[in-house]
Amino acid sequence: xxxxxxxxxLALLAVLLAFTAPAPPRKTRLYLIGDSTIAxxxxxxFPETGWGMPLATFFDTAxxxxxxxxxxxxxxxxxxxxxxxxxxxxxxxxxDYVMIQxxxxxxxxxxxxxxxxxxxxxxxxxxxxxxxxxxxxxxxxITPVTRRRFKNGQQEETHVAYSAATSxxxxxxxxxxxxxxxxxxxxxxxxxxxxxxxxxxQLAPGDHPNYPYGRNDNTHFSELGARKMAQLVxxxxxxxxxxxxxxxxxxxxxxxxxxxxxTTKDAQPTTP
Length: 272
Fold this sequence. Notes:
Elements (H helix, E strand, L loop, with lengths): L1 H19 L7 E7 L17 H4 L8 E5 L7 H6 L4 H6 L5 E5 L16 H17 L3 E5 L7 E2 L2 E2 L4 H13 L4 E2 L1 H12 L8 E4 L11 E7 L1 H17 L33
Helix pairs in contact: 5-6
């Protein structure tokens, strides 16, 4: 009888401890919305890699969860029309982040199924920003990552109007801006015209079984290119001291080491 009472007492104590134990700290969820340059890729298109794929390796997974919702071929207009945005809004919690990078498909005038005028592009970015802040979460605008395009040995700017529109909205609404268009162009230029092919999906016939006839793609990234672009994003997270992200980086390894920044600037206002 004493043994039964003792067992019941231990069971009751365990239940009480379970209910009174402090809940683990909530992880910051970092949503990524955008196009194929960021998106998760299926095995059939490997080695094509979106820069959102390696991004998670740069953060302490005990504190930050990267939730990549980017989709191939989407513009701001089609991302909204396909109801890909509303589920994110519904799930947002205070202090979460939404990184927003579109432009490649918005500017595609030859593809009316995805093209978005600069005016509508601005309206859509404003919608993403205001609805993120309404949930007391943090928006971050990112200019569209560059395509590889050289002329006379110089990497050209490939998203003039849409990068300018992104920067304009960031400035008007006081949103942190990662100018990935600029930093990725500088990176491609540093590599040089021929070596920069290593950053993109450039394959000769027979190089990979997924591309038996080769691939000459100056938009989508190789594994190396995606990791380099993710490094540029994280470098700006650190430089701008974005709270909840900059203070939760993973311990450096050979794969996720972030090059030091040449300048360190204060974060732009991130009040939701």
